[in-house]
Write a structure and sequence with these properties.
Layout lengths: L10 H13 L4 E6 L6 H11 L4 E7 L1 H8 L8 H9 L6 E5 L5 H7 L3 E5 L10 H6 L3 E5 L7 H8 L3
Parallel strand pairs: 1-2, 1-4, 2-3, 4-5
Length: 160
């Protein structure tokens, strides 16, 4: 039986997989986020991101990182639950949890061929965009699914 936890990689495991994928000349796609309440917008975004290459790696903000970015009431789900949900998607090849507020150190490690963010970002606001473009990689923004955002869903659920 398949265990989704196999796709949740520590940084050392990531090194081994990166060497393997590079040996196979796989096109690496990277994106990141909090993915606090997984919803249709996330699924569609990740599915589209996966089509931009051979291997989709998702950087996941740790619980502490989410609290610093979103406030003391977040995350709703802990990092293990969020990572397992992401890893359960067949088009996600790997999930790596990072502690920092931005994924820059992870992007430096992975050196993805494609860096992907949602359409609510501009090229200028995407962390790591300059780095990825400096070695010939691409930076891509994908459109958001209207009506789906974690903040909006939480507000509706709380009657706000």
């Amino acid at each position: 039986m398949y265990d989704t936890r196999q796709k949740i990689l520590c940084w050392e495991e990531l090194d081994r997989w990166l060497a393997y994928w590079r040996f196979l000349e796989q096109k690496l796609v990277f994106t990141n986020g909090c993915f606090d309440i997984l919803h249709l917008g996330h699924v569609q975004y990740l599915e589209e991101a996966s089509k931009l290459g051979d291997v989709l790696i998702v950087g996941l903000n740790s619980d502490q990182s989410v609290r610093r970015l979103k406030g003391p009431k977040r995350p709703i789900q802990d990092q293990e639950a969020r990572a397992r949900l992401l890893a359960a998607m067949e088009f996600v090849e790997a999930v790596v949890i990072f502690e920092e507020d931005t994924p820059l150190r992870l992007i430096e490690k992975i050196r993805p061929d494609v860096l992907v963010k949602g359409g609510d970002y501009t090229r200028e606001t995407i962390v790591g965009a300059d780095l990825v473009e400096s070695y010939g990689g691409a930076v891509v923004t994908l459109p958001l699914v209207p009506g789906y955002s974690t903040t909006g869903l939480l507000a509706r659920a709380c009657g706000s």
